[in-house]
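User: Is it possible to get a 3D structure for a protein together with its bound compound? The compound here is glycinamide ribonucleotide. I've pasted both below.
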Amino acid sequence: MKKVKVAILASGRGSNFKAILKEINAGTCNAEINVLITNNPDAPAISIAEENDIPVEIIERKFFTNREDMDVKIKEILDQYEVDLVVLAGYMLVLKGKELLEAYKNKIINIHPALLPSFPGVDAQKQAFDYGVKVSGVTIHFVDATLDAGPIIYQEVVDISNCKTAEETAAKILKIEHKAYAKIVDSFSKGKYIVDGRRAKYILD
Ligand code: GAR
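Assistant: Yes, that's possible. Here is the predicted structure of the complex:
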């Protein structure tokens, strides 16, 4: 079975990136990570890439006059590394480039730490905790021009009713993110998602 060639986009800690690498190394995620792209030169994710001999491309916002141009550069890098799948793992900028979004339509995925459409944007776990919901969870979705609203690939519910702080809530959800994201990346090596309107239907090869 052909491995999925992946680009990771991350802005910070990179624990989802690390979790996917762990599953790849364990043989439970049939993928290879060809490149890490980050907008943050201080992102801890960079050392994870370096320790694993993964090329790093730093694309900082300040070097571009607008976001469209920044995303054109990202597209050029994705083309250069010939990736099949772009995995946003804590990439904290919204992709805005039309050219990028069209060229990689239904090939860019994001993980969000809540059950969308509830609690989009930043600090989703705190939003859920503060609201007092009993369950929240994880959503993995295709990325389009909307904010956290592309077609949903996968959701998993997490019981947060006993969490005492927003931090505890985030930690409980993060554990689920780590397993779920690697599982979904792996699924791209065994089949495809057909997107019809809001629905992403999975078909095995
Ligand atoms: C994760 O919890 C991810 O779901 C979230 O950022 C964190 C990144 O952690 N993403 C979003 O909130 C996107 N809207 P990581 O850098 O350790 O993977």
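The pocket of glycinamide ribonucleotide is lined by residues 10, 12-16, 89-90, 111-113, 124, 148, 174, 177 (CB under 6 Å). The domain at 4-204 is CATH 3.40.50.170 (Rossmann fold).
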